[in-house]
């Protein structure tokens, strides 16, 4: 939601008091999205302990195995990186959608229509499976980073079509 909100006209006008060019505007917004993705990933990973405590005190079943399962540091590292990449992927997708809507209000109707069409044609399952069902962590990282870089390049190309406020 933040990625879509920062592309609105009010936020753009506020940003231009600090940021003067379209490239620096986009880079500042991308750094913001990276920062909030990192904070979100850390928060999600740390909430695991709170969830375990909640289950321990509220569940009627024996959760001894769940609470005492020991995992290595690599488990947390993989979890942190994958959560960060997923949050950043969705943030960049939201930013691209916001930029498309800034270019033309027609995209406000077109994007949900594409989403519904993909769902109806079962192409959405294929796209979701492409990212969420990957068995190799390295291949997953390459897929997501490539998509993020393509989305970022697309944002830079789209934003060149918007006028620069003087």
Please give a handful of descriptors for the protein shown.
166 residues, mainly alpha
Can you characterise this structure?
With 166 residues, the protein is mostly helical. The chain has one domain. Helix content is 78%, strand content 0%. The protein is globular and about 60 Å long.
Assign an overall shape: globular
Look at the structure and give the mean pLDDT: 81
Number of helices: 8
- Determine the structural class based on helices, strands and strand pairing: mainly alpha
How would a crystallographer describe the biggest sheet? none
Instruction: Name the poorly predicted regions.
Output: none
Helix content: over 70%
Question: How would you concisely characterize the structure shown here?
Answer:
This protein is 78% helix and 0% strand. It contains eight helices and no strands.
Topology:
Elements: H1 2-5, H2 9-15, H3 22-58, H4 64-67, H5 73-103, H6 107-120, H7 123-132, H8 137-159
């Amino acid at each position: 939601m933040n990625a879509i909100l920062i592309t609105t006209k009010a936020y753009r006008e506020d940003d231009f008091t600090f940021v003067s060019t379209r490239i620096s505007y986009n880079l500042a917004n991308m750094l913001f999205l990276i920062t909030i993705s990192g904070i979100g990933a850390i928060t999600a990973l740390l909430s695991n302990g709170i969830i375990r405590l909640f289950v321990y005190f509220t569940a009627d079943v024996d959760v001894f195995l769940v609470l005492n399962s020991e995992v290595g540091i690599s488990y947390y590292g993989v979890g942190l990186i994958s959560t960060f990449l997923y949050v950043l992927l969705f943030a960049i997708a939201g930013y691209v959608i916001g930029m498309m809507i800034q270019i033309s209000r027609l995209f406000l109707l077109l994007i949900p229509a594409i989403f519904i069409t993909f769902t109806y044609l079962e192409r959405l399952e294929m796209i979701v499976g492409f990212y969420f069902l990957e068995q190799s962590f390295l291949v997953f990282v390459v897929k997501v980073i490539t998509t993020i870089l393509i989305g970022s390049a697309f944002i830079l190309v789209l934003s060149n079509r918007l006028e620069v406020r003087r």
